[in-house]
Structures are given as C-alpha cells and as structure tokens.
Write a structure and sequence with these properties.
Elements lengths: L9 E4 L6 H8 L15 H10 L3 H15 L2 H7 L10 H16 L4 H6 L10 E3 L8 H10 L4 E6 L2 H15 L6 H10 L10 H12 L4 E5 H6 L1 H12 L31 H6 L13 H21 L4 H8 L10
Parallel strand pairs: 1-2, 1-3, 3-4
Amino acid sequence: MNGKNDKPDYICVGPHKTGTGWLYETLNRHRQVYPIDEKEIRYYTKLDFRHRYPYRLYLDRLKRPIMWLLYGRFQLFCKYPFIKRRHGNYHLWWECLKFEVHFLFWPTSLRWYESLFDGPKQLLQGDISPSYANMDEHSIRLVKKNSPQVKIIFFLREPVERIWSHVKMLLAMKRCEPTSKNIARLLSTHADSKAYQSYPYHSLQRWLDVFGSEQVFIGFYEELVSDPVLYYEKICRFLEIEDDIDQGVQLEIAPYRIGHLLRPPQIFESAQQVIQHRWKSSRIEMAIPMKLRETLIAKYKDQVLQLDQLLPNSYPAQWLDRYDEKAIGPSS
C-alpha cells in the first residue's frame, strides 16, 4: 500500500436523500462492478472529524463495536447458525463475519481502507458515502492525494425538499407521528447534523476546485425521478462501463449482504425494474409545513442562487421558480 492506490475507482458524494441508496443497489448489479459490502464506509469523514477534533479518534474506536451490538447486526450472526433450513450456507456466514470484524474493529488506517476493495482488479469498486459532501478542502485534497484518478459522482437535490425528505425518514425510523411538535423536536436535535447543515454550492465547489469538472459527474435527483434509465446510462458512460440494461444485470440481491442473511433474496423480472425501483421510502406522505418551508428557503436560497450561476440553464433555476410558489408537494 503506497498511499496511491488505484481503488476505489469511484466515490459517490451525497448528501443524504439524493439517490445514493439507489446508486448502491443498481451498480451492485452491474457485471463490471464488484459489489460493495458496506454502502457508507465514511473513512475520510472520520479523518475529517479527527483533523478538527482529535479526541474523536478514541470515541470512534469505542463507538463502532457498540453500534454493531445495538443495531441488530450482532443478532443476525447469532441467529444464522440456527436457521440452516432456510439458507444453510455457513461459508457465506463466515465470510460475512470476517468482513464485519475487519470493518468494525480494525484501526481505520489507509491500509485498512484500501483493503476493503479486495475484488478483481478488472472490476470497478467504489465508496458511496453521503457524508463526504460536507468535508473541508483539506480532507478532499487527501482523497486526491491517495486516489488521484478516482471519479467523483456528486448528487444534488433541491435543498428544501431534501431536508423535508430527511425529516420524514427520521420520523419513520423513530415511529413518530408527523406532528408539529415531533418535527420541531427532530429539527432541533439534528440542527447541527451534516444532513441539515449541507450547503450544496459550497460542497460542490470544493470538490470541483480539487478534482476539476472532467473528473466530477453532477447528477440531479429530478433526473432520477423523471427518467431513471437515462440517468443510469449517463452514470455508466461517466464510469466508462457498458450500458447493460438491454443485456441484463444481476437481478438478485447479492446474498453476502448482512441485512439479507435472514431474508429471502428479492428478485426482479427485468433490469429496468431494478433501476426504476425505489429502494428507500419514508412511508410518510405529507406536505412540508409552510412555516418550515419558509425557514428553509431563507436558509438555502443564496446557495441555490450560486448554484444557478455555476450551472446555468439547469435545475437550480427551476428550484428558484418553485420558491415563489405557495407550497411544495409531498416528497419521498
């Protein structure tokens, strides 16, 4: 490991609720892409935190095993040997356990990060970590230093709609009713979080300054919603891999993934169904409250104006037009 590895081949930069989950599921089925065992590695985010707050190094070493125990992944491994009738693949269980131990308990060094991309050299491997969107320039230059040829996929979504989508996801996760009180409490709790404090123009500009426009793909959530197949084709062209839609893709969820050890694999009848499937859903259909909408518009409008200047005749201009409307409809 010399610090200038040719892996990962691509890094997808969020922020949250911009389609990173969709990209993870679709690219994992491409025959020229080696499936990613963990969607959000967040290696450089951890370095970013340690650069600003050195004490985070010790907290991270304690947090990872604790979260592994609390979030159900440990229970999956305990249950798996007793359900041989359902799967019976102990080699699969052992391989998953080895990855989990390596991913969660080994010190997060550059050698550790590069070792996660252990697939065949001829296949693309990538890191999809939405939290990279908000890293400072120091951390982005470190990415460039370690992986100078990596391709950056940067997703954008209208910020008011994105924040509201994130709030609905949190409400669904916590099984809270979407009342004004619960929404206000969530926003107060997460006011300093990366998801809420994501400034799209500044984030995108930092990555463009370091990597240049030729190495950065800019995708809009509206493109994903309106024509996911065309959006997928654009990403394939950027990554210089074949468009495999007509030739078929791996339609079964990769069985090595931890979350599917105890569940039957999900089968799709066609590649188009994979690409058009909505992998994440908040299950809450509710328009954003007007007061919250006005607050978020005031917070992000300058960012959208700057994005419109950076990317003229594109979706940011439509976002500005929508800010003059009375309401934004439900979003996922």
